[in-house]
Here is the input.
Amino acid sequence: MASPLYRDTAVVLRTYRLGEADRIVVLMTEHHGKVRAVAKGVRKTTSKFGARLEPMSHVRLLLYQGRELDIVSQAESVETLAPLVGDLDHLTHGLAMLEAVDQLALEREPSPHLYKMLVGALRTVAQRSGTLVVPAFYWKLLASEGVRPELHECVHCGEGDPLVAFDMAQGGALCRTCRSGAPLSAGALELMRMILGGRLNDALDTPASPVTHEVAAHATKALEHHLERRLRTVAIFER
Ligand SMILES: [Zn+2]
Here is the structure.
């Protein structure tokens, strides 16, 4: 019989209370996909897990596999990815990344690339701020899901620059004749090309401006579009 005990490394995505003393932790594991597990006694001051099972914690775990919920048996810290107290940008950016991964990851479906992207992004967030850190992560997530927007020619007719609109429902940027969706500035288009074209660090160095906000708005909308479409697909399969 297979052992119900297994080891894995994970990032804590979120936690919620279970009864008086316990907590459920939602984990993005390296090898087992998204896992929900009970951490018993974690809310007592004498807890053996201490503060190791908070959102953004990067931990090595020993877990018992359960029918619905697994049980955390041991947890040790791999590294500190959580923000320093009072670093609000770091906290906000980190939580936005956790939420995106929480929505994208499927339960018990191994997705090592998603785990690796999250750890990498949380390390980036720990080192640098900037308005494009989270949007860039969204674009990278979408690209890894096979949803890479077309940014070099009009998705409708194939014309090159100038591309003046962006519509994720169409698959990317559009020319003046075919435009739909939201207006796209030349600066935002250039930044999106940098992010998805291997010049991420140059893009992250860009100071905040209306253009970086525009890129953030396109990224958020594109991620929402992808999640909604996937939810609809799941609903169709479950009918
Ligand atoms: Zn066109």
Observations:
- The beta strands are 5-18, 22-29, 34-39, 58-64, 70-79, 163-167, 172-175, 182-183.
- The chain has six helices and eight strands.
- The chain has a mean pLDDT of 92.
